[in-house]
Amino acid sequence: MTSGAATTGSSGLFGGKSKLVAVIGDEDTVTGFLLGGIGEIHAKTRKPNFLIVDKNTKVSDIDETFKTFASRDDIGIILISQYIAEMIRGTVDGHDKSVPAILEIPSKEHPYDPSKDSILRRAKGMFSVEDFK
């Protein structure tokens, strides 16, 4: 298994192929994941699987990067800091494919708020209290 890639058996979700984890977040969040070994450069486009967002990053650049990650066939999971996901909420909520999976994560300066997480909201809508009786 290569660094930064997740793999499953040949009959698994990804058909036995390794998939990358992409990260969109503030410098501390992305650096932590890079130190954990997820950093990769796309072989053909030479673009990384991460985006560091700071006060000078345009929302349009975040949106475009998210769309690019979502369309790449080598990415299986996109981790995005929740406060950044809020900046492009329409795009995040519009993602309706299971792969890549979108996970909203907290950051050092912005705690996680479950009420804003689109995946959690969708999951809650799938079940009722009666389902658990």
TrEMBL record:
<dbReference type="InterPro" id="IPR008218">
    <property type="entry name" value="ATPase_V1-cplx_f_g_su"/>
</dbReference>
<dbReference type="GO" id="GO:0046961">
    <property type="term" value="F:proton-transporting ATPase activity, rotational mechanism"/>
</dbReference>
<keyword id="KW-0813">Transport</keyword>
<comment type="similarity">
    <text>Belongs to the V-ATPase F subunit family.</text>
</comment>
<protein>
    <recommendedName>
        <fullName>V-type proton ATPase subunit F</fullName>
    </recommendedName>
</protein>
<keyword id="KW-0375">Hydrogen ion transport</keyword>
<dbReference type="InterPro" id="IPR005772">
    <property type="entry name" value="ATPase_V1-cplx_fsu_euk"/>
</dbReference>
<keyword id="KW-0406">Ion transport</keyword>
<comment type="subunit">
    <text>V-ATPase is a heteromultimeric enzyme made up of two complexes: the ATP-hydrolytic V1 complex and the proton translocation V0 complex.</text>
</comment>
<dbReference type="GO" id="GO:0033180">
    <property type="term" value="C:proton-transporting V-type ATPase, V1 domain"/>
</dbReference>
<dbReference type="Pfam" id="PF01990">
    <property type="entry name" value="ATP-synt_F"/>
</dbReference>
<comment type="function">
    <text>Subunit of the V1 complex of vacuolar(H+)-ATPase (V-ATPase), a multisubunit enzyme composed of a peripheral complex (V1) that hydrolyzes ATP and a membrane integral complex (V0) that translocates protons. V-ATPase is responsible for acidifying and maintaining the pH of intracellular compartments.</text>
</comment>
<dbReference type="InterPro" id="IPR036906">
    <property type="entry name" value="ATPase_V1_fsu_sf"/>
</dbReference>
